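TL;DR need structure tokens for one chain.
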Amino acid sequence: KFQLQLLTIRNIRSESTDYQLIFKKIADQTPNGLTLNNVNLENSKGRVSLRLNGIAQTNNHLSTLLFGLKEDNNFSDVTLTGVSLEQGVTNFTITAIVNTGNFKKL
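>> reply
TL;DR here they are.
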């Protein structure tokens, strides 16, 4: 019985997504001069969708984040879905799919 419990715990952990690591990967791609106001991760049927809302001081900051996520194999379908200019800053929304196979807990 004890071995079965250990195996069950191990299986649950291996199927769990490491959200802390996902946030680290996003932070690694986020340049100075860009602020993320909202980070939304939605898990639906094993597929994790990502939505980032924020402001960028310049278009270069936004481009750095966008192309950084596109080049990172941890994310796919990275798309700039909204952009507007208000009071000299760029508001944006980026969506992506998180490749959760890279973020399984061991």
